[in-house]
Amino acid sequence: MKIGISCYPTLGGSGVVATELAMALARLGDEVHVISYAMPSRLELVGPNLDFHEVVVPHYPLFDYPPYSLALATKMAEVARYQRLDLLHVHYAVPNAVSAVLARDIVGGNHLRVVTTLHGTDITLVGNDPNYLATTRYGIERSDAVTTVSDSLREDTIRQLGIERPIEVIPNFIEPERFLAARGGPGARRWARGDEALLVHVSNFRPVKRVLDVMRIFERIAQEVDCRLLLVGDGPDRALVEQRCRESNNCDRIQFTGNTAAIEEVLIGADLFLLPSETESFGLAALEAMSCEVPVIATAVGGLPEVVEDGVTGYLRPVGDIEAMASAALGLLRDPAKRRRFGKAARQQAVDRFSEAEIVELYRGLYRRALAGG
Ligand code: GMT
Asked: Ligand 1 site: residues with CB under 6 angstroms?
């Protein structure tokens, strides 16, 4: 198949899933063209059948807001026409779905298909904003096929956007071997002093991630156990977090690594993963932690219960319940055998339920059905 994949190029979950999917499809022999305003962080040009096409958004004095959606649609139409694409698979509805639908109209004929994958905040925070609602709904309804990354997001899409069309659930995935390969090295323990417990949080530091809750949980745990916190990623709330670590006199026990594409290097060897989000449609970071045998302490929201099994691969507690999350974490840190058992179960479930090979085949099956759909 000849597939155009469009996504945000950042290290956010939707960009990571799109990039890993693009590389997996190319390895399977499909011809893949990635379309974005910058080269996605995790993208490696794995072979001659994987290309990158940059969307250029020219500035003009009239434009206070350069029209990215139009430049994207123009590039999608150009790539579709000249590379003879069978379909465009767009990740994140705003504005990618609308741009793809427009590109399909520009190309004309009846052969180019549009597949849209909804990732989370494109529905729960952005798409349902009245300023974007009508175009988000239009992009979803006019796509030839639509997927969400969890049952929970599917329900949110139906309820919050009033969507009535069929939506298929295809979850996020991991490549199991990648996380084993890091085992030989120091992994996260390069930051540890001696035997101290290592807690890790990975995110884009947006308010929805509640990074201050990560700090509060850590402070509570640190009262009872010798431990260190690894904060991976970057974003708007980082300054707040740095301020909090100074105020609580914890800076010497907290390490900021910034963004990294080599996520396994900060997860292998860690003791616990913290994800106290306000909402989370799936929680790819939690799945990546699980695949490194790291149990997850998270909130019981959105798609997280579809990923983390409470009491088996981690613990799920109510949003904002610092005491409950800290005490669940302490229960595991004080019982190393139990923590290891949870870690093994986490890896097993990640491999059994979310392996790349199986999930990528779900996408390919969907593509075939969309192409056959006339
Ligand atoms: O907020 C983020 O984590 C980034 C966001 C994105 O679209 O890049 O992530 C969303 O998509 C991921 C991949 O499908 C999901 O695993 C995340 O749960 C989801 N984030 C939220 O719903 C907050």
From this structure: 12-15, 17, 92, 119-121, 149, 172, 204, 208, 279-284
